[in-house]
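F.,

This is the one I mentioned.
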């Protein structure tokens, strides 16, 4: 495992992005309303591997565990929710942030939500999760994030908002 952290999500999901992808968003800007509200906008950015939005279906407390590579078949079998996306990383930094951060943007991401990677370039993102024991989405729900470095931009096959749960 590279890193782990808790994310108290106010929104119904989270975003993954490298800081270069959000460099043109001004502090205080409501990027969610102007550029991320329509499913087609979210889909376009996910296919570009820039600002990758993921729906969790619920706000709540999410326990992220970050790993390199791809999950094993045994690991895959343990999780009912699976999603494969892509992201471009520059500066060897990847941020995982609450979706609602886009409503009142700040370039300052909490340090525990910044993942320092070994290489720049494109990565496959494999997201795994399952319904917590309580049966409630977002109730200390574990989300495994596997990052596999690629030689080129991956084809991302999504329609609308990428949905994990």
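My design for it:
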């Amino acid at each position: 495992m590279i890193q782990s952290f808790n994310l108290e999500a106010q929104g119904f999901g989270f975003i993954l992005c490298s800081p270069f992808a959000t460099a043109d968003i001004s502090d205080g800007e409501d990027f969610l309303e102007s550029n991320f509200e329509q499913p087609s906008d979210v889909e376009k950015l996910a296919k570009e591997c820039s600002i990758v939005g993921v729906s969790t279906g619920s706000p709540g407390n999410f326990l992220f565990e970050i790993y390199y590579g791809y999950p094993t078949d045994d690991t895959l079998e343990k999780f009912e929710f699976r999603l494969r996306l892509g992201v471009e990383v520059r500066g060897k930094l990847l941020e995982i942030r609450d979706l609602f951060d886009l409503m009142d943007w700040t370039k300052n991401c909490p340090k525990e939500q910044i993942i320092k990677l070994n290489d720049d370039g494109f990565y496959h993102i494999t997201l795994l999760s399952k319904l917590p024991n309580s049966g409630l989405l977002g109730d200390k729900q574990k989300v495994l994030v596997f990052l596999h470095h690629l030689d080129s931009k991956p084809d991302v096959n999504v329609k609308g908002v990428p949905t994990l749960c």
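The mean pLDDT is 97.

Talk soon.
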